Q: What sequence folds into this?
């Protein structure tokens, strides 16, 4: 299963964020300072199967997280997970990302994504920003990897059967050829035998000449 990495940087105060409606595989970087939110999410999951999403936070300045709300939503925009994380967390400038792992399960097929709402304090001044809903991956009813494994197994069986069939075909053709040769020899033997019998009978019926 491929993993999608979403990299979002957010500026403080009133600057508007660029909405992201669809995040493709790889890394998406919206260059706003000084906050960097990193979200690791599977590109493809299976309906009803529990999977993990990793949320990381990094900053170019010292700040305190007042609230960080993350909601995961399914293809019908219904919330399947919601939690406020990193509350009261101090984030030092240029420190390694602080990460938290959440587990989610989605019961319907289709695209899934998340919505974040971030409130933080820098030098005693409180700021609030949010990011519109964006797609993280796709939920399938059938496990692609399982299907791929089954296909590989069936293909292997098919290849083996084809190989066995080719061997049997060669043996069959060889047997038919041998039977054809034997039949021709039998016909030659029959003709030769009949000729021999006819010749023998002819000479047997001939009367010897008397002097």
A:
């Amino acid at each position: 299963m491929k993993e999608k990495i979403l990299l979002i940087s957010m500026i403080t105060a009133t600057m508007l964020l660029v909405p992201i409606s669809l995040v493709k595989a790889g890394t998406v970087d919206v260059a706003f300072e000084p906050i960097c939110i990193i979200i690791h999410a599977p590109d493809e999951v299976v309906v009803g199967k529990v999977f993990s999403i990793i949320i990381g936070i990094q900053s170019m300045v010292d700040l305190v997280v007042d609230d960080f709300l993350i909601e995961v939503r399914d293809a019908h925009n219904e919330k399947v997970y919601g939690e406020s994380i990193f509350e009261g967390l101090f984030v030092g400038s240029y420190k390694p990302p602080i990460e938290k792992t959440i587990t989610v399960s989605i019961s319907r097929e289709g695209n899934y994504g998340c919505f974040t709402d971030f409130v933080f304090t820098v030098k005693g001044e409180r700021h609030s920003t949010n990011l519109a809903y964006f797609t993280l991956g796709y939920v399938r009813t059938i496990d692609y990897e399982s299907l791929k494994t089954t296909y590989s197994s069936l293909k292997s069986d098919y290849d083996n059967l084809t190989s066995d069939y080719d061997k049997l075909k060669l043996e069959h053709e060889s047997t038919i050829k041998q039977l054809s040769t034997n039949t021709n020899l039998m016909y030659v033997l029959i003709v030769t035998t009949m000729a021999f019998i006819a010749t023998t009978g002819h000479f047997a019926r001939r009367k010897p000449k008397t002097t």
